[in-house]
Amino acid sequence: MKHLFTVLACTAVFSLNAQTPTFPENGARNPNHTIYALKGATIQVDPENVISNGTMLVQDERILAVGASVIVPKEAVVMDLTGKFIYASFIDAYTTYGMPEVPRRKWNPEPQFVSARAGAFGWNEALKPETDASKMFSSHQASAEEFRSIGFGTVMMFAKDGIARGTAGVATLNAEDGDNKALLKAKAAACYSFDKGSSAQDYPSSLMGAIALLRQTYYDADWYRTAKNKTEFNLTLDAWNNNQSLPSFFETTDKWNVLRADKIGDEFKVQYVFKGSGNEYQRMDEMKATNGSFILPLNFPDAYDLEDPYDAEMISYADLKHWELAPLNPGAFEKYNIRFAITTSDLREKKDFLSRVRKAILYGLTPKAALKALTTTPAELLGIQNEAGSLKAGMLANFIITSGNIFEEGTVIHENWVRGHRYIINDMNALDLRGTYDLNVTSMAPAKLKIEGEPSRMKATHIVADTIKQSASISVSGNMVTLSFPSKEKEGTIRLSGLVNSESKFMNGRGQMPDGTWIDWMASQSEAFKPKEKEKDTTQKDIPTLDDVIYPFNAYGQTRKDTSRLTRLLHTYNAILIKNVTVWTNSNDKDSIIPNTDVYIVDGKIVRIAPNIIPTKTAFALTIDGTGKHLTPGIIDEHSHIAISGGVNEGTQAATSEVRIGDVINPDDVNIYRQLSGGVVAAQLLHGSANPIGGQSALIKLRWGANAEQMKIKGADGFIKFALGENVKQANWGDNQVTRFPQTRMGVEQVYYDHFIRAKEYHAQWEAWKAMPQKDKEKATPPRRDLELDALVEILFGTRFITCHSYVQSEINMLMHVSDSMGFKVNTFTHILEGYKVADKMKAHGAGASSFSDWWAYKYEVKDAIPYNAALLYRMGIVTAINSDDAEMARRLNQEAAKSIKYGGLSETQSLQLVTLNPAKLLHLDSHMGQIKVGMDADVVLWSDNPTSVYAKVETTIVDGQVMYNSKDDEEIRKNMEEDRARITQKMIAEKNDGAPVRPVKSRRPKLWDCEDMEYDGDYLNDNENNEEE
Amino acid sequence: MKKILFTSLILAAAGIVNAQQPVPAKKQSKSVLLMNGICHVGNGKVIQNSVVGFKDGVITLVGDATVMRLDLSQWDTTINVAGKHVYPGFIAPNSTLGLTEIEAVRATSDFNEVGYMNPHVRTQQSYNTDSKITPTVRTNGVLVAQITPRGGRISGTSSIMNLDGWNWEDATLKADDGIHINWPGYYSRNWSEDGPGPYERNKNYAERRADLEKFFAEARAYCMTPKPAEKNLRFEAMRGVFNGTQMIYIHADNVKDIAEAVTFSNKFGLKKVSIVGGAESYKCTELLKTNNISVMLARVHNLPMRADEDVNQPYKTAKMLQEAGVLFCFENSGDQEATGLRNLPFLAGTAVAWGLEKEAAIAALTSNAAKILGIGDLVGTIEEKKQATLFVSDGDALDMKTNKVTHAFIQGKSIQLTNEQQQLYDLYSEKYGMDAK
Which chain A residues are Cβ-neighbours of B419 within 8 angstroms? Predict the structure, then answer.
């Protein structure tokens, strides 16, 4: 049989040209159409069908026939595979096999506004839809071998660079047969991601910028496609349009990015296939709702080395949990009936692949689903289901021969045939010498020789007197065996060479002692090889389930299974009665504090405020004794940057009104919980202040455990961030950042005029277009949809409202002049630290103010900031709020508001309004938030003391009538978390002791953004705490 | 050109408003008696109806008005502070006040010198008595501050200043009180062009620690050399540490770093040691107590270091130190540390909300801080023979709602309780025809 292989290998080399008819021959043609008959194996035709004791005929690169009663032609070369299994070889739908290395992003100290690429391409370097992986592809023998050794025969390959990455091809792994015989399909999919890759261009510098760029490009491409009179030739948009007929694969780095991509897909009627990141199990309902198919990595994290208890503290609960639950991921998709394929992508070592698949099976994936995910599903995703993925006549001869069921521990892959090219992985005909032998060597005491392992990779041990064990090296070539082991008596190694009689399990021959003396030796088998009894997996009972997932997936998240604490911790009340409490209603300045009364909340609304209320609902009802305590409307933070993924600034252009914080809400941010502990119920999540026209805000309630869309306040008006002063003119950005317009306050004004005038013209163009008769439209080109100008038009027409970062009186005045002349209002000046200097003008304009209590002198432009600002503005009749812009300060905004009592003499109720009713007004939420009044949203906070006192603590925070924070529950949650941490830590240590690989501790801490944070050089995808590092 | 531009900017700014710095106070020439106030002595005691008298800058009389016989004619000035609170001047350790004016303007920053082992670099003569920030700090009751350098392994030598004076000599309460070490972190993070990396074990920890030991060993050897052949300013600056006249302040937050700092101090026989920051000091209170090491507790208004930690841990640490018997005070380093120094009393207020007794919190702001800084014999309590550095507030000074300082004295000098911010407020209130409340 060994013989045959040599012949075959030669054939392959010779047949190369013969089977590529367009190529010239050098020497005689060598046509070879041998039929191979593979008999007696268990043939897994596809995940559904299996033939035991079947026969498969293979000729050239295809399967001739498969079945239980196939007639074997007499000229066929027959292989007896009794006891073996045959599967279609695996297909990896997401690799960079055979692709050139992606260049690293060049660091560019100065801004780069447009693509530096030569040619008639689009403006943004991160868009490379014209990339054609099939044209860059060239087989790579070493990596093909790596793939084949774990059972793969076919892979998709793409260029992993950029936001639009062009088209992916499909290749088979017969690397030695030439690229023409390996490339199977030139264009199988178009690839996308949020990662700008090697692009050194500034835009996008944030995740929300990447999203906006994708959206704008879909619009641009459509406009370009339909334009009657093209004003430019754009290769990028051409390619983009051509790619739309292909399946679109979207690579994600986090479960939330799946939803972000899916939202784009919904807008443009594209259903993406998602390349997952491995943490999708944390939000399966949401994954299901995308209707997408998934390509899943098996990047289950290694355990951390937690032997040092302080080191262990560095690892977050989320990381510990993810380590424990990650292997559930593939099984979760099966359970939710979502179509998925499995990829080797994101694995540090490909050789771990099969053991990872088996682990996923241990964690609930069925073998059938695993096989599907490795064969038929990727074939369908790549549109090659008639070529590969199952074993049918006419399909490619892409299959593996295994020693048993591929998903069982211990099974090895013997052979991997790729397009009829036979590759031996673990030779099934290797001499099997395994067993225990009596070894006799001249002049040495009798010993035993134990040979174990796989026949193709045997391990030997030399045993003297049953106790002294030394490992020996053994190798077999043909019928010749070579053995060596250290000598007991003399320094050095004893070396033996001999012949094997495999029938009688006998070896003998000659050898040399360390001193060079020649000796004779023989070994006869005394005991046959017994495979190790598979230890009953004791960990089986420790296998977690999806019920162990916490929502959100972070510290202070809760499982959905814990029925014992259901009513307290799972926020499922529909009625809460707070008794005998002092209520700060915010209704008006006088009589706004009602002592000793009851507040009744039903279905998320305040339904009654009166003494001695008798509750009408008793199911899932909670009664809280408020004696001696204070109940206030929940705190609303007008200026927040928590719960945002992938950067808070898209400051790469002077105007980026196309980006939306609403696209990048991060529901897992622990700061949501921290702020609930300080009585915050809602926040405006703002874009940063790096440019005059920033991005669109998101208004959220702090619904801990909900997803991003659920956190948004339904029906809220649209808001947008503007900014003035040092940040937008990049005054403190170093000497390289001196070329982006504007660099002075003079320029800032012109940015506004330019953009609003353009927005007006843009609007007029659309109006003209809408008014155009249909027959004229057919001949004309519609205006280009511009997401940046869309947002500005909304401002002009009063459907989007400005929150403007501002410090110095001159610029505040300037913006009011611009807006007055353009016909819109500035809704809110935020920070507004010199607002006191122009309070009269602000009042006349109708702008509100959202300020810091006492920050000042951190920049030159705030040297005149005064802590009396808020009180002065309030008393001037301007709607005034105190905000945080800071994750720490946000949880004690009551204290910050109380400073206005000290600085400027506001009353206690007035000061509380600064963080409750007034921000509600500024955010246009005051019709249902900001007061304790019948009919209002039940967003209330129970305080231990007068909330304007430094001594007040939050006892309970209620959002929409549901308890989101309670100081007693907090203790219990923490206790449970500590216990669970300890349990998982012990589990990790046990793994380490069992020899599993461990990694040193690394602690990613939650990112805290403020206004001025720019992402570092485009690394905006790595702020997720739970990202696996493999 | 830049200079000209800058000058004209300042002139322009000055032209807008006519705000003025408060004038430094004159030496106390007339005796003062504060009558009937609630006196927080600073050592945990309260005198509900007190008399506090001081002459020539020194407290000469402290007592209970209900049991004392007073000869009012002996006092030049008598101030009735009935119902008001009298406190020792609050002390702000570990501060860059007077070394910085505007964080983002490099020209105004004087706290971080070039170099790695810089014990010879001193803050005293760089302290700017005319800082616009200082008057906003004293108006909330903070009257003394330790002015501390930053950066390097050994940042330099701090001095303790009264927050009033014509010049730094005038303002000095104690010169060169101690040396500041930034302990090399057991955990550290690398920074790359992709921003900060995750925290992991500091691969260079052993080397960094060895650097410090080497420096200390060599400095000690130098100080023991009768006549060093060449003067070494860095080593010279360490004499006070080895002869026990100067404090060693070791800045460390992580529990492992704190434990290492303690071992290090013991190895060199350092007697006067304080841990600055000590965010995780609550995890090793026994160690600190046994070794008689105090803590200048990191800003209370801080988030926990890790997502899993108790959300309110920074609020609770003070109480845990108090219960364990570790001597501690409050400090406010971090973002906006100088401009935010006026919030020091409220850090203590928050600690009270989370379980620390109020008088213990006041002690932390006063006598504890004084003890730790080695000025306990001069200030920190309202007791006879102490310097008359104290203030009167209408209400509870730890609560922002009621903190309203009506009188303040530094060494008996009556401090002008105004600042530019108040003046701007008055100016614009007047412009709009409003009462400046």
Answer: none
**Residue contact A1000–B353, C-beta within 8 A:** no
Continuous H helices in A183-254? 207-226, 235-243
pLDDT of residue A503: 78
CA pair distance B175, B70, nearest whole angstrom: 38
To probe the interface with B, which of A556, A896, A951 has the most B CB atoms within 10 Å? A951
List pLDDT tens digits, range A107-140: 888 899 999 999 999 999 999 999 999 999 999 9
Query: Are B195 and A1019 in contact (CB < 8 Å)?
Result: yes
Domains of chain A, by residue range, sit at 1-32, 33-89+390-430, 90-388, 435-528, 569-633+930-980, 635-923
Residue of A nearest to B342 (CA): A854
- Whole-model pTM over 0.90: yes
A435-528, what's its fold?
Lipocalin (2.40.128)
The answer, for B426 touching chain A at a CB cutoff of 8 Å, is no
Q: Which fold has domain A569-633+930-980?
A: Urease, subunit C; domain 1 (2.30.40)
Q: Any CB–CB contact under 8 A between A951 and chain B? A: yes
Homologous superfamily, domain A90-388: Metal-dependent hydrolases (3.20.20.140)
Query: Token pair 């961030």 is at which residue?
Result: A721
Q: How many CB pairs under 8 A join A and B?
A: 174
The CA distances from residue A428 to A421, A432, A474, A483, A502, in Å, are 17, 9, 18, 22, 15
**Integer Cα distance of A630 and A837 in angstroms:** 36
What are the residue boundaries of the structural domains of chain B, listed by start? 22-89+380-437, 90-378
CB contact under 8 A, A895 and B400: yes
Cis peptide before A552 (omega within 30 of 0): yes
pLDDT in tens, A148-166: 999 999 999 999 999 999 9
SS3 A350: helix
- Closest-CA distance of chain A to residue B425, Å: 6
CB contact under 8 A, A310 and B403: no
Nearest-angstrom CA–CA distance, A1011 and A685: 11
Distance of alpha carbon A850 from alpha carbon A920, whole angstroms: 11
